[in-house]
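tool=predict chain=A
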Amino acid sequence: EAKGPSRVMPGDKVTVTFAYANSSDKEFNSVSFKAQYPPNFLPDSSVPKTTDQAQSEWTLPTIAPGKSGTIAVTGSFASDARGKASIGVAVSATDKDGRVLLQNVAAYDTEIVEGNLVTQLILIGSADSQTVNFGDVLRYAVTWRNTGSSVLTDVAFTVHLETIPAATTDKGLLRWNDL
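tool=predict ok
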């Protein structure tokens, strides 16, 4: 079984899970999972780790009768991705004669929302990097616009202010997390 979010935006982190189970009374050996990604899906990581650089293949030595598990892949869709996309997995096992037998194929479909959320942070009247002194009042504004054709819901913004340089010396360095 393959599961993931029903709607995503390009650039959002997406986690897709592939669930597997051995419901037979026989042990499966050399079980291979091969993910099938659309060209605009960019996988970052997986649990368990893949056996290839493309983050698309996993091999389990055995799956005992009655045992089950999941494979989770995290990635994102490229900025030009639009419309429906399908992510799937093919599962095969090797029998005692060394033959590779396809066991199952599962896929899940998602809609890649066309909305492009354009944001801008204005800090002390400017969108450029700012230098401030201790005690200065920080005024900021976040502006946004949906330039796509889909309605966006549950949008949240987080503002994180960072000091630069973060190391070298503590003299005159304001550490926001310590306030």
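The chain has no helices and eleven strands. The mean pLDDT is 83.
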